[in-house]
Amino acid sequence: MTTLAAPALAAPAVPAGDNRTSLRASLHHIGALTRRNLMRMKADPESLLDALFMPILFTVLFVYVFGGAVAGNSHNYIQYMIPGMFGQIGLSLAMAVGTGLNTDFTTGVMDRFRTMPIARSSVLIAKLLAESCRSAVSLVVLVLFAMCLGLRIHTSPVNVLATLGLALAFGTGMVWVSMLLGMAMPNPQAVQGVGMLIIVPLQFGSSTFAPVHSMPGWLQAFTSVNPLSALADASRALINGGPVLHPALLALAWSVGLTVVFAPLAVARFRKRT
Amino acid sequence: MTAGFGIVPRMEPTTDSNNAAAVQVRGLAKYYGETRALDGVDLDVAEGTVMGVLGPNGAGKTTLVRILSTLVRPDAGRAVVAGWDVERQPYRLRHEIGLTGQYASVDELLSGYENLYLIGRLLDLNARGARRRAEELLERFSLTDAAGRPTRTYSGGMRRRLDLAASMIGRPRVLFLDEPTTGLDPRTRNEVWAEVRAMVDEGSTVLLTTQYMEEAEQLASDLTVFDHGKVIAAGGVETLKRQVGGQSLTIRPAQGAQLDAMIRCLAERGLAAVPDGAGGLTVPAVDEAQLTAVVAALGTSGLGIAALETRLPSLDEVFLAITGEQSTVPAAVPAPTSLESVA
């Protein structure tokens, strides 16, 4: 049927090729889209509540409910748990990207963007930047609140930055998993639901909230490969002092591994949908 | 091959092939599993005109629009919009088009102004240019008062207007409107129609999908009728109307008892009137001369008319007329491909 004797199509004005957006234009697009994502947060302040209060809630809950039992007293527990929570900021950042992406796909907004002459990646990068701002708020709240409760930085501010860098590196690996989830799931609630199923076992089956030595053998086997254990151990060492190299390398290896496996899958899926 | 082509009653060429058509489609196909959403479609839209794509749900109208606006890649065939190939030059093509879909694609959490400003910025206007263009379009679409409110507080009509405004920011050469008035009340629908006409006056080419014959009649100069992913009729609005028999006439007598007398009176003049079951009578498919004759005949015979109404054929009637005509052509009609039979 396609070989019907219909008149041939007029040749395009320019023979072939397709001009992609310039880097300069892309930066402008990313700026405009980041602004859009930030304005969405401003328009929906409830979405910022968890960024502000979850760190406080978690800290209070764990320090005063479990602190004494786990570490003898709550002061020791603050020094134990808070550095581990730094690492998890990257995790919640990654998960928020997947949910946000899914929201854009389920509304018609993504279709609008896709019919515009902008690079596909601008939408993703802008989402990441805006969510990073949210994470930065979480992080500042967490650090200030923990210091009010008595957290002491035994090393240097550079080490604190290194801790955050490590958290971000791990978050970068997890972003691909989250993106894939965001595009595979039918709605934002499903993304959050499945995201929780992945995150909660990782969070609690790690050395973040309690030392692993009292856990049963099968669980210790899990915690020893769990990237969040490595992340928590490295963060603790960076802030309290101690051997950093091994856990830090393990966390970074996880980040690289997740990126190698999931980035191509997520990008392929994104291209297919866009 | 020729038999297959014969089922498409292409009554008059919509464009000359040498003429610069804003949209050219040849043999376009898209399959979703067993479903042939588009099954070898040819179509031309001349620069500066409005093409109405008419068809029921699932006929392939939306798939066509999504392919032409680079949202979906075709499985076969070619499409060129504003001189750019949808598959090979999507970035260039996107500079020339605007799309308003069935679902308003505006950001619910942002205000009307912010939505338009964002799109201006994404189309490489500078901050001042984007602001000016947003304000200009808000004014034109009567949204200035609501400009600062989040769009989730807008009514359906306001949202659709904002969506149209968003499609207009880049002054597109070709505008795709996918069922632009579905779900709108008559007043809002008229507003949208007025805007579409204004866009065409400014030189945009419009491809509009609709389920309503009336909408196509109001806006389009050419029509393409889709069913099951295929073009089943194409041509000028007038030609197509003639083909499906034009408008029907409904008359209600001033005195109910005179209904039979009226029908007899019209029958004597060769017009087949039938009772419409609601105390009136219907004369299907009348042209202007017949309409005048009916009124004159009833007037001279002294039969009082309480109400008289002419009506365009509905989409159902258009389909019946077209498919009915086809079934009289032996061998030219393949077995109908219904979804049930291929599933």
UniProtKB/TrEMBL annotation, chain A:
The chain crosses the membrane at residues 48-71, 77-97, 160-181, 193-212, 248-268. InterPro entries: ABC2_TM (IPR013525), ABC2_TM_bact-type (IPR047817), ABC_2_transport (IPR000412), Nod_factor_ABC_transporter (IPR051784). Keywords: Antibiotic resistance, Cell membrane, Membrane, Transmembrane, Transmembrane helix, Transport. Coiled coil: none annotated. It comes from the Bacteria. Its main location: membrane. One of its GO terms (cellular component) is ATP-binding cassette (ABC) transporter complex. It is a multi-pass membrane protein. This is Transport permease protein. Residues 46-273 form the ABC transmembrane type-2 domain. Belongs to the ABC-2 integral membrane protein family. GO terms for biological process: response to antibiotic. PROSITE patterns: ABC_TM2 (PS51012). It holds the Pfam family ABC2_membrane. GO terms for molecular function: ABC-type transporter activity.
From TrEMBL, chain B:
GO terms for cellular component: plasma membrane. GO terms for molecular function: ABC-type xenobiotic transporter activity; ATP binding; ATP hydrolysis activity. Pfam families: ABC_tran, DrrA1-3_C. SUPFAM superfamilies: P-loop containing nucleoside triphosphate hydrolases. Its EC number is 7.6.2.2. It is found in: Cell membrane. InterPro entries: AAA+_ATPase, ABC_transporter-like_ATP-bd, ABC_transporter-like_CS, ABC_transporter_ATP-binding, DrrA, DrrA1/2-like_C, P-loop_NTPase. GO terms for biological process: daunorubicin transport; doxorubicin transport; response to antibiotic. The keyword Nucleotidyltransferase does not apply. Its main location: membrane. It is a peripheral membrane protein. Residues 23-253 form the ABC transporter domain. Belongs to the ABC transporter superfamily. Drug exporter-1 (DrugE1) (TC 3.A.1.105) family. This is ABC-type xenobiotic transporter.
